[in-house]
Amino acid sequence: MSADAVSTPALPRLLPCGDAAISVEFGEAIDPDLNTRVLALQAALADAPVPGVIETVPTYRALLVQFDPLATDVDHLVAAILAACRDPAGAQRTVRRWRVPVVYGGDFGIDLETLAAHHGMTPEEVVRRHSGGLYRVYMIGFMPGFAYLGGLDPALATPRRLEPRLETPAQSVSVGGAQAAISSVAAPSGWHLLGRTPARAFMPGRDPVFLYEAGDEVVFEPIVAARWDALDAAAGRGEPVAELLAP
Amino acid sequence: MTALLVVACGPGTSLQDGGRFGLQRFGVSPAGAMDPLALAMANLLVGNAADVAALEFGMLGGEFVVEGGPVHVAAAGAALAVDGTAVPALTSVVAGEGARVRLGPARDGVYAYLAVEGGFDVAPAMGSLSLHRRSAIGPKAPSAGERLALRPMAGGGANVLPGLPLGEEGPIRVILGPQRDRFTDAAVETFLSEPYAVSPRSDRMGTRLSGPPLTHSAGYNIVSDGIVTGHVQVPGDGQPIVLMRDRQTTGGYPKLAGIVTADLPRFAQLRPGAVVRFRAVDRDEALAALRAQRDAFAALAGQVRPVTAGLDTERLLSVNLISGVTADTGSP
Q: Which end of chain B has the lower number of beta carbons within 10 A, N or C?
């Protein structure tokens, strides 16, 4: 990247989403730099709210800005967005890192062996590679608390199942294409289930209700199945179980 | 405790308010009333703010018994009867202890509302009383035998509205984008000129349309981005799906257009089989339509008046006129 590119980042495309939202699109790829710009804009709009804006939704490569069309000066909003994008260093974010315990394989990860066979690896090799990575939460979507992760070892990238399962367990740790994920609640999925974490990504009534947020980092810690019951019980009482590592 | 005892209600019944906002970045869908104008109308009649939670009914109605009454109720989108006596349209009624309150099936559209003065005394979930079925966030759907607790009412009497503003007609207005460039020009032309039929496989998450397929120009997978209510997404089979209140927060299909806010209520009320056409507008036209709608509703709010003893002919006449007007909202 040239120094010039750093000092004057390309401005995003502002795309209409009906009359009550704008998608601020920084690119079309899954890329940590694009996601960083998305999150920087989100932080800037949170620090200096534009009247009428209801909420923002960060995704891999775009920030969706939803507003009340009757209470928003759209020209002002666009100007604020572009100004924030010209000064991406204006909003500093603190990156959190989670250590997430996972029981791999068996009933906890019913696709571990087939995924290993698909890649000509042993299950142990898949676990070693999967738990050896540093992941980035690109976005939360699909279901409440469902974390889309980047940073998967490319050797583990696996096309999604042709037939999605109608139900997969809550807290599944899975692989779909080049992405990884931590699921929150039971849901249909075509992703490959490698394991399960006792940590609840989403738990109504707990503080915080949601563990992960876009921009967080995640590392996985393999644990033995014998530890599941105790950790699951603790999580059921509202303990995070996933551990926030010191910066 | 004042409550409505549920005698029966359709499976599509739930509490809905203006929606749950501020948590979409955590994957929480907004939910909320499919027809916020009808919700506002029912609330207006009982003296509530426009977006107070009311019971939303999908096609089928329901029956309730008042306990610890009286209760001031109003309906929008379906016929209301108390102890077997029909309540005129655009009129609220005070139902006494033990009264049977019955809401008929949706009159012209899909969604009907039953509002109570003071609202339902139910704990909000993450700031809203709207049920999002797929994630089970919000008060669970009511079932027979259940008691729905009500907040105390201020003691308002029955109200009547002189008439509705004329319902919008014509094609559903959309703003093209955000992924208009993912479609061929011919696909955009087709979408804006051909009729599409509402599929029976539609629900609060999405309204599926069937019609001439829309051709993508560069595949049908995009890196997931954010979704708004009213987005017209087009998966691989080229048949558009309009994402509605229970939609997911993000998605990976290209979105050709977004329905303007002013037209979302009447679009939501289209029944399976109804034929719909779309017309592209710019932001100014969308905003003008929304302002006109807001002003018309504000004018209406100023015309709420108490029901006087007996029915005068002027009101009967207006009620008759109204049923003719509301019939227009069923199909564009």
A: N
Domains: count for chain A: 2
Q: What is the pLDDT of residue A78?
A: 97
- Tally the residues of chain A: 247
- The pLDDT of residue B139: 97
Taking alpha carbons only, the member of A6, A44, A43, A9 closest to residue A27 is: A9
Single out the residue in A40, A55, A90 at which a domain terminates: A90
Span of B147-161, B190-204, B318-332 with lowest mean pLDDT:
B318-332
Of A18, A56, A61, the CB nearest to B260: A18
Instruction: Count A/B contacts: CB-CB distance under 8 Å.
Output: 138
For chain B, give every domain's residue range: 3-161+305-325, 172-285
A5 has a pLDDT exceeding 90: no
Q: Which residue does chain B place closest to A18, by CA atoms?
A: B258
Helix (H) / strand (E) element for A125: namely helix A123-131
Q: Where in the sequence is the domain holding A157, given as residue range(s)?
A: 97-245
Q: Are B254 and B182 in contact (CB under 8 A)?
A: yes
User: For chain B, what percent of residues have pLDDT higher than 90?
Assistant: 83
Across the interface, do B248 and A142 touch by the CB < 8 Å criterion?
A: yes
- Average model confidence (pLDDT) for chain B? 91
The number of angstroms, rounded, from the C-alpha of A44 to the middle of its chain's C-alpha atoms is: 20
| Residue A45 sits at the chain B interface (C-beta within 8 Å) | no
Contact A17 B287 (CB under 8 A): no
**A122 and A233 inside one domain:** yes
pLDDT, one tens digit per residue, over A206-235 is 999 999 999 999 999 999 999 999 999 999
Contact B287 A19 (CB under 8 A): yes
The CATH number that domain B172-285 falls under is 2.40.100.10
ipTM for this prediction:
0.91
Residues A105 and A221 in one domain: yes
Containing A85, the helix (H) or strand (E) segment is helix A74-86
Using CB atoms, which residue from A69, A139, A184 is nearest to B250? A139
